[in-house]
Amino acid sequence: MIEKYTFGTPFPTEAVIVQIESRRETPKLLERDEDGALVYKLADKDIVYGLGEQIRGINKRGWKYVNWNYDNPHHHEDTKSLYGAHNFIIVRGEKLWGAFFDYAGRIEFDIGYTRRDLMRIDVGGDFDLYIITGQSEDDIVKQFREIIGRSYVPPKWAFGYGQSRWGYKNESDIREVADSYEAAGIPLSAIYIDIDYMDSYKDFTVDKSRFADLAALASDMLARGIHLVPIIDAGVKIEPGYDVYEEGVAGGYFCKNAEGGDFVGAVWPGRVHFPDFLNPEARTWFGSKYKALTSLGIDGFWNDMNEPAIFYTEDRLADTLKSIESLTSGNMGIDEYFKFTGMVAGLNGNEGDYSKFYHNIDGEMVNHRDVHNLYGMNMTRAASEALKKIEPDKEILFFSRSSYVGAHRYGGIWQGDNKSWWSHILQSMQQLPALNMCGFLYTGPDTGGFGCDTTEDLMIRWLQYTVFTPLLRNHSALGTREQELYRFSTVDIMREIIKIRYALIPYLYDLFVKCADNNEMMFRPLGFEFPDDADALGVEDQLLLGSELMITPVYRQNARGRYVYLPEEMMCVRMKSVTSYECEIMPRGHHYVTAELDELVFFVRSGCRISLDGQWIGYDVL
Ligand code: MIG
């Protein structure tokens, strides 16, 4: 059952696409404290699931989270905000209920942080609240997903392996990647091209000195089964003569400053304007621009910097420079020194800058701060809606960095700038079920890690995990160790994992479509299936995949195995290649399961089997 409560006059986020009659009262489950925040008394064993793309565990209890979309390359344990706002939770314990806080601005979830026995949700403005009750977590998720709409389904090729790196500068870099993968005998379905393909970071342009003929390159690649997937950034370079800039100004399609002029921020291209993606006309216009690339044979895009990220705004920079001058003119003391470094660090993504611009909503100027979390979603929406008209017969791959609930209808998301850290394998896994709850099915991390230098063993363990995620993309940052698989001495192990992935695609794709059609999750916490099993409820590093599998990735350096909890008898599959593997039935209980570096270990649930490239694996086929 879903009950809707409306507080004040909320901005319509369009997350929910079904009309539901709403009440104007506080739901019985919750109380409002003196500051207007919603509070819920947590029982000792209550678990809180959800919040989509956030840090920390599957059980969110014990931390304070701020959903305010933020370009944050530091996914630390004490990080509060990442790129998405997915304000959905499920509480399992004395009571079982779910809630969606539909609010476009900043919202804080204190889930047993200030007080272990209290959950306090502080919503920054007027909002709608949906309280969902049901038989089980799956039932609550299904009801929620029914009101937010069907998940985006990418083309099947997007389940193949993709190679990306921030640093491929030109056509010959791309050809080298394709050739080297071919020479190494590793299948490849996509090469992602990052910001360097553009002319001066201008959206929908191609630097001809680096990519003389992108159409020819794209078609050569496609003939080899490789799709080129370029990046598109949110900010539009201010440059007279550049069509996107000129048209945006003329059409009034950019976000405005308080004086009514076009707001200026600085990102990769230097000074930019931000398209007003909340304005339908601006969306249609920006979306139509993708034609510049689809007409060259491009059929996939990733949207970046759409929180939107702002490196600095000119007035804050000017103020900062002035203050720095006053600090540096004398003998800088320690206090001044910290003020100085803090001011410079505080330029990027400064919250105050988001109050300085406006969206044109049906002629009314709405401050960005109040609708901040909707920006990225509407960028992907612009592309998705336009491409349905431009290329009605083609399936196009889209995924975005920033998102809000509802964005799952238009594209996928990737999990942002993680690091080549062991702990980030676990962090990514822990987000998967929470993202699936909100309809984000097409997702995955930067395999190998984006920031920092990866290592061979870490890369192998990343692959053994992301062999199961719908998005399997090896991506890394400029300046880090190159991590294309053919560069490693253990390439033989990596090749077999990628081949296993290709053998798994029919299973993963079918499951994906089924989950999209039936509003189900691909990845579920063990507690969703075994809510009466206290040990299962506490598991933070294993996930059920579909109704047949359980994944148990290794995420510790030099580990030659790991502890696994089996809530029921299952079959352990230890796989070295598509055709070389061992199966062993293990009873319910706690086990230490060995997993050497060259062994992909996963479990088939009791009585189940899956088809791997035409061969059955699992029960009855031993
Ligand atoms: O400020 O385009 O998350 O995947 O490689 C960094 C360069 C901008 C951030 C993205 C990352 C991408 C990078 N971008």
Description of the structure:
The chain is α/β, with parallel strands linked by helices and 622 residues long. Helix content is 27%, strand content 25%. It is built from 15 helices and 38 strands. The strands form 9 sheets. A 9-stranded parallel beta sheet has the order 26-25-23-20-15-14-13-28-27. A 6-stranded mixed beta sheet has the order 2-1-12-9-8-5. The protein has a 6-stranded antiparallel beta sheet with strand order 29-30-31-36-33-34. A hairpin with a 5-residue loop joins strand 3 (31-32) and strand 4. Helix 7 (314-328) runs antiparallel to helix 8 and helix 12 (456-466) packs parallel to helix 13. Ligand MIG binds at residues 166, 194-195, 231, 304-305, 401, 416-417, 475. Ligand MIG is lined by residues 166, 194-195, 231, 304-305, 401, 416-417, 475.
Radius of gyration: 24 Å
Strand adjacency order, main sheet: 26-25-23-20-15-14-13-28-27
Portion in strands: 15-25%
List the ions, cofactors and other small molecules found in this model.
Answer: ligand MIG
Which range best describes the helical content: under 10%, 10-25%, 25-40%, 40-55%, 55-70% or over 70%? 25-40%
Unreliable spans: none
Main pleated sheet: 9 strands, parallel
